[in-house]
Write a structure and sequence with these properties.
682 residues, alpha+beta, four-stranded antiparallel β-sheet, three-stranded antiparallel β-sheet, 14 helices, 24 strands
């Protein structure tokens, strides 16, 4: 109550006025606060109103703000995923139409003109798929991977190159929700890169510039940089390699240690070439004799439990001398800057690379490192990249181009160029090529385990795959067994054995092997003394001849051979390559090719269906997360309302009370100001 305390009934007027004014001001402040609560609808408008509730309200506001951003992101994700699902649906419709064409036109009732006409429809399907592949959603190109601003698919060399990378664009969708809004190379439309896998380990020599980190050491565990001991006829010297960065630093430190021993003994131990690297080993050239006499052996030992000398291959147990100067192999890792030709190696020359129906001669004669090889290959303009595996020491050639069968990536030897492709391990059809990788991974199919229906016994005649007839009429049947399907060299060996089994002289009269130069894979060579035309024919409907690239091959009377196609070509397998295969098979009136293309389209349909299921699942996760986030926002807003919003009924009652109090205070104050000293003296 705004009243004057009883104890102050006899007080100076000034003091009473101050007390009364203070009471009125407090009432006015309280009245203002209530009016402010009613006007703003909030109990807490600043931190000073209620620090505890203000802190809680601030935390809730931050949560609501984050949730608002997540809800906006959910809307973005939903739109992107719906668009992506629509694009996949369109591609699925195109693939279904292509499958229908393949199933219809594989029938032998159609002629070449009918199939050629159907290829026009396939052309339109390819154009449709290209449009879908480059379609954009609200976040950019739907199949652009981590870079949706860049067009993912471009036409190149009659094929289609997928240039995106990464697993897909992601945005912040809150805890527990991490889904890609775009698709990358793993999608059915994007496919993956295809590679000619290196089969030869490139063993680079060690040079003075080889980094110590690139040396796996004689034990295969790297080089431990520390100290070890040199010992010549009882005179010892510690060599510290802790500061060595390159192999040259190691050689210099060892030579310096030996020179210090020479300085103390007054003798000469090192030959003029000193400490150096010989191919892949550390070599210490010792003199046999000096001005005093025979030079003692150099012995090397570890200090304490060190392994430095062992890692350097210097712990053979035999001292280094004029006749024993080499350590063990230091196993340098292959890197882009590794030298690829040692002093005793033949030079490199030209190779021929084919891709997308084009071919280029690539000159590697000036290449000194793998970086030079990569630059030369990638400058060919054929869409080919070079990659290396430092651990295995092999080089791969990689193509991102989806093309029709027969136009894939292949690497050939060029005559007179020192077997460059084979030495680099990048020839596509080589003796070491795994058979399982041939024909787009189908390998070589054979007839096997077929029994005579009358006797139930497996017979040779029912399991032969093809027959070779020499020009003089002699013939032999070839039965390729499952164990022969390891490498082309093994299959060639089986063919040669079949010829030898019937008395044909191998290699004088006949020989099967890998074509040495130029395009081609497996070759059948008739001896110069055998006249006439050599022929091959399919037996028991075996697909082996086709899978070996020999189906349709003709005899060259000048060379006396039959050259098979390179069935080891590699290419990207995706919906583009399958449709290109179907179009080509229709134009070629190739029933078997139409069947293969139909199988490829069927596989792609399955992939599209699986991808759509994943995208649909992601969309459902986003929707569920959005609904949960909306519930969290409602709960936060309700809690904030309880902490912050004004109770209008309570505030109205308080306002009325304060108004009455203020009016009473004013009246009491007015009445007290009218009294004088006489009123108190009465």
């Amino acid at each position: 109550m705004n009243s004057i305390p009883a104890g102050l009934s006899r007080a100076p007027n000034l003091f009473l006025s101050q007390v009364q004014l203070d009471r009125i001001n407090r009432g006015n402040v309280s009245l203002f606060q209530v009016q402010n609560r009613l006007a703003t609808g909030r109990d807490v408008n600043r931190v000073s109103d209620d620090p505890v509730r203000a802190s809680a309200i601030s935390t809730i506001n931050q949560s609501i703000e984050r949730s608002g951003q997540w809800l906006r992101n959910f809307n973005t994700a939903t739109t992107a995923l719906d668009s992506l699902d629509g694009a996949l649906g369109d591609s699925q419709d195109a693939a279904l139409q292509a499958k229908s064409i393949a199933l219809e036109y594989v029938n032998s009732t159609f002629n070449a003109d009918d199939r050629a006409a159907a290829s026009i429809t396939v052309d339109s399907l390819i154009a449709n798929i290209l449009e879908v592949s480059n379609r954009e959603s609200n976040v950019g190109h739907m199949f652009g991977g981590d870079s949706p601003s860049i067009q993912p698919v471009t036409e190149m060399l009659g094929g289609y190159r997928f240039g995106a990378d990464g697993e897909g664009l992601r945005i912040d969708l809150g805890p527990g929700v991490d889904v890609p809004l775009t698709l990358g190379p793993g999608s059915p439309l994007g496919g993956t890169s295809a590679r000619v896998r290196g089969f030869t380990e490139i063993r680079p020599p060690v040079t003075d510039d080889t980094p110590v980190a690139d040396l796996r050491g004689a034990r295969g565990q790297g080089i431990e940089l520390g100290e070890f001991l040199l010992n010549i006829d009882g005179e010892t010297e510690a060599v510290d390699l802790s500061g060595a960065d390159t192999a040259g630093d190691i050689a210099d430190a060892i030579e310096a240690g030996i020179r210090r021993i020479e300085g103390r003994t007054g003798r000469n131990y090192l030959a003029p070439q000193g400490v150096r690297f010989d191919a892949r080993t550390l070599r210490i050239d010792m003199l046999a004799n000096d001005q005093v006499g025979p030079v003692p052996d150099l012995n090397i030992s570890e200090i304490a439990q060190g392994t430095v000398a062992a890692d350097l291959g210097l712990m053979s147990g035999v001292g280094f001398s004029a006749i024993n100067g080499n350590g063990a192999d230091l196993n340098p890792r292959l890197s882009w800057l590794s030298p690829i030709i040692g002093p005793a190696d033949l030079p490199f020359g030209q190779i021929r690379i084919r891709n997308g129906g084009q071919n280029e001669l690539v000159d590697l004669s000036q290449a000194e490192t793998l970086q030079d090889v990569r630059n030369a290959v990638e400058a060919s303009g054929l869409g080919v990249r070079v990659e290396l595996d430092p651990e295995s020491g092999t080089v791969d050639l990689v193509s991102d181009l989806a093309v029709a069968v027969g136009n894939g990536l292949s690497v050939e030897e060029v005559q007179g160029n020192f077997q460059t492709a084979t030495r680099l391990g990048i020839r596509s059809f080589a003796a070491e090529t795994p058979v399982e990788s041939l024909n787009d991974g189908r390998g070589v199919r054979i007839i096997d385990g077929q029994a005579d229906p009358a006797t139930g016994q497996v017979t040779f005649d029912r399991n032969t795959d093809f027959r070779v007839t020499l020009g003089d009429g002699r013939a032999f049947d070839v039965d390729i067994r499952p164990e022969d399907r390891k490498t082309p060299a093994a299959i060639a060996g089986r063919i040669n054995q079949a010829a030898a089994d019937v008395g044909i002289n191998v290699p004088g009269e006949f020989q099967a092997g890998i074509v040495e130069f130029g395009p081609g894979g497996l070759g059948l060579q008739q001896g110069p003394g055998v006249g006439g035309t050599m022929q091959i024919e399919q037996l028991n409907s075996s697909p082996a001849l086709r899978d070996l690239g020999l189906s349709g091959s003709t005899f060259d009377p000048n060379a006396g051979n039959i050259i098979g196609e390179d069935v080891a070509q590699v290419r990207v397998r995706n919906i583009f390559s399958d449709l290109l295969d179907l179009r080509q098979a229709l134009l070629d009136d190739d029933e078997i090719g139409i069947g293969f293309a139909g199988e490829g389209v069927e596989a792609r349909l399955s992939e599209i269906a699986q991808t759509r299921a994943i995208v649909g699942g992601n969309a459902q996760r986003v929707q569920d997360a959005a609904e949960l986030r909306e519930d969290i926002v409602l709960l936060d807003e309700a809690t904030r309302s309880q902490l912050q919003d004004t109770d209008f009924a309570e505030a109205a009652v308080t306002l009325s009370q304060l108004q009455v109090q203020l009016q009473a205070a004013l009246q009491v104050t007015a009445a007290s100001r009218q009294q004088s000293l006489l009123d108190f003296l009465g």
